[in-house]
Amino acid sequence: MTTRRHFILFIAATMLTIASGVSQAAQPSVEIVAMAHPPVQSALKPLREWLAKQGGKLQVAEIDAESPQGVKRLASIGLAGHVPIAILIDGKQQYRRKDGSMVTFVNFPAVKESPPGARGDWQITDVQAAITERLNKP
Question: What mean pLDDT comes out for the span 51-58?
């Protein structure tokens, strides 16, 4: 009886371990390293609103780019100097669009309201697409 009980507990524990591992592996991490003042905050507002609607499907972390931790994080991904925004999905700042082109989630999004000298090659919709694709990976 004791052996049977231990076996059942072992199987139950194994199944829980596997289930929790699958759940954690499927949850993307989104890291926003950004300056904590305008116009950066306004540029990220639509993305933050969209991320908030995703509920517990994502792990989201934000770091002030001008803090010692932010400077260190930017350096760890090869960036230095005046970097207003860097967005990483599962630690990566680049994403291949469905059309095959690559975008890098650094600097401001490429919209008219962004400062001309600091515009990146990405849109908020690119970040959303990358996250959605990652959420839908088996």
Answer: 94
